[in-house]
Amino acid sequence: MAQRRSLAVPRGAPVLAVSFFISFLACVATGLELSVNNHAADFTLSTELVPAISLSCLVHNSSQAEELLWYRGEGKVGLKDGNKVNISNICISPLNESDNGVTFTCRLARDKSVQVSVILDVHFSPQLSGEETLHVEEEKDVTLSCNSKSNPQAQSSWLKDNQSLTLQQSHHEVYQTSDIFRLSIKKVQKSDNGTYTCVMESPLGHGTKNFHLIVEDKKPVFPTEAVIAAAVVVGLTILFGIVAQRDKIFKVW
Questions:
Q1: What's the number of domains the chain is made of?
Q2: Structural domain for 171, as ranges
Q3: How far apart are CA 122 and CA 151, in angstroms?
Q4: Is the pTM of this model over 0.70?
């Protein structure tokens, strides 16, 4: 009669296998999705300078409590205990120009690859005002700078005495970036005297800044080297004269 052999199973092995299987399932976020303001994929949120905006992150297809995390750029946003599980809301207030282009991301705590990001597109008009008086000596260079940001980017121009400035290639130079508009005038002349206006115009508004340019007479350059050379020559002449007349001088004494 054939004897049946049974494989020796280490004590506790079935329990370990089941535990591993459960842990494996817990680490896989199969079917889990997130949405931010009803968007299931990354998106751009366009807004004007309103007092506040709110972002709401929601877990979908979850059969258990899921913790959520919020990030502003790479920095983690602090959340209250009652605002972390399955649904989480953050409020951005006050909204300002520095929030333009910032990315907010909602992530699943146990699987950070499950996430949705939103980029803020904050629209604002040029913030430009005031005036400035500049005194510059004739034949010197001068630069007028307008530091202004806007979204969308504003159209920029220069006026002189309330008339469009005619740019001269060898005399004027204009430099512009997303937040700087600059006018350089090379070797200023008396004819450059006047009020220059930096104008920024966008669909949301406009801004201006005045520069009162006063060109002063060219100051005479003190001939330091020539004076020193002349003093040396005079000194040497006197010295040589004394040496030449030393006999007479000694007789007098």
A1: 2
A2: 131-216
A3: 7
A4: no
